[in-house]
Amino acid sequence: xxGKSRQWFAVRGPVTATQKIVSALLxxxxxxxxxxxxxxxxxxxxxxxxxxxxxxxxLVDLFVNRGFTGDVAISVGRVMFSFAIACAIAxxxxxxxxxxxxxxxxxxxxxxxxxYLPAPSFIPILLMWFGTGEAPKLVLLVIGVIFFLITLIxxxxxxxxxxxxETGMTLGADxxxxxxxxxVPAVLPNILVAMRQMLAVSWTYLVIAEIVASTDGIGAMMMxxxxxxxxxxxxxxxxxxxxxxxxxxxxxxxxxxxxFPYLSKSKx
Length: 268
Description:
Elements: H1 3-8, H2 17-40, H3 52-65, H4 68-99, H5 101-115, H6 123-130, H7 135-158, H8 162-170, H9 175-204, H10 206-210, H11 218-227, H12 231-259, H13 261-267
Helix pairs in contact: 3-12, 4-5, 4-7, 4-9, 4-11, 5-7, 6-7, 7-9, 8-9, 9-12, 11-12, 12-13
């Protein structure tokens, strides 16, 4: 194996920025090339799996001529608003459960039980409770992520070094001071990581949420396309969701590096 190959395939070796960009572009190029080849060779049904160039043309038409930008904005708003609600509840609860075993003993059986309930199963009852407006969609998106987010933050909080807490107690700090000045700053980087992970899950529930008597949003467009077998429009919606998810994931990575630069330096 040559020196360059050893560099690219080093076990847990560092990856340069150039290598990351080249690898990311290469894997997507291979994927779309294989997709285009299968369509060109007649290996797939073009009605069910339209070629990439047709999907791209449809995507441009959706944005330029059919007002798809508004649907995208509505979907992004739903995801971000519901996720903000979930974080506002999950972050303090997860921290308190991770710090105080008595709170964990009281709340964790309830939170754990909800984690195993599939969020889409609540659609009928949410429609009965809230009607067909925005409320059932937002509640479904909150239910889909909040209980997992609470558990992740609780687990991360438990990983805060005990020596830090004991040092604060030795210096005379009370319980809430320790939580505010010791535990929260120590766990914040991992809280942001947990939020980034669960935001991806929130996007997976978007189409399900927008099936609920919705006339706008990416999911609603995809459901309309399904009625008329417009697979190219459905795939366009899938691509847009994927691009938005990647963009937000990158944004969270940059926020993490910006807020906690000392962690990036410690890894270098």
